[in-house]
Amino acid sequence: MCGGNALCCTRWPLLTYCYFRLRFIMLLFAFMSSASIASARSLGTCTCIHFNVSGTFQTPNYPLSKPTQNTCILYSFIAPADHIIEALFDAFEFRPRTER
Length: 100
Known about the structure:
Blueprint: H1 6-10, E1 15-20, E2 24-32, E3 37-43, E4 46-51, E5 55-57, E6 72-77, E7 86-94
Parallel strand pairs: 4-6
Antiparallel strand pairs: 1-6, 2-5, 2-7, 3-4
């Protein structure tokens, strides 16, 4: 997972999502947990975004298309063991597939 970017996937093992070569735009996601954005950094070609309190998140540059220089975006949600991470989707849109 994470195309060899072990730091993204193993540093925050509770719940990790890796999106490689995104073919869709994540319009708006809302999540609730006891676990706002703690940090955002780029590791190689993967932009890693870590969350640790309640808040909302969306694709970089929303509502415009995602940046073309990113080949993947990692969202990592962190919560204490006795908490639940809940993702509520207000909108979710897939781009039409243009390549095979």
